[in-house]
Amino acid sequence: MKLKNSKPRWANGLLWLSLFVTFSACAPNYYEEPPSATSMRGDAPHNIERFAHDLDLTREQLQKIRQLRANFDKEAIRLNAALRVAYLDLNNLTHPERKPIDKDMVFKKLDEIDGLHAQLQRKLVELELQVVDLLSNEQYQKFDAILKSRFGEY
What does pTM read for this prediction? Predict the structure, then answer.
């Protein structure tokens, strides 16, 4: 006997599969340290201290760069903590024992996670722009040449 408004058996499996794929693709590895300014991209402008000697950076420039990086690292830690909490919430929302699954809440949580990732990326771009603004034209040209020699046309 078929119940009224019942879904086919494969529909539940498809929902679980899509949630599993979404969560596995989005979930960070909780055993890794959160990315910091030095680990996200090796030779990007926010990691310019590596080339301080080649670029003839002044003491004041180095101090400002270090302060900018410290501020970024604090914000990145805050955003990564919020991301971890959001992923835990998503996991709780999609847990197999929780039936029925509230799709609206799941999608709302996914939007929150996307927003946190976007904030982190935006903070990184802001840092890079601020660091580049500290360079003279000559220093920037030297740094650009260093990046091109390491990555080609980036």
Answer: 0.65
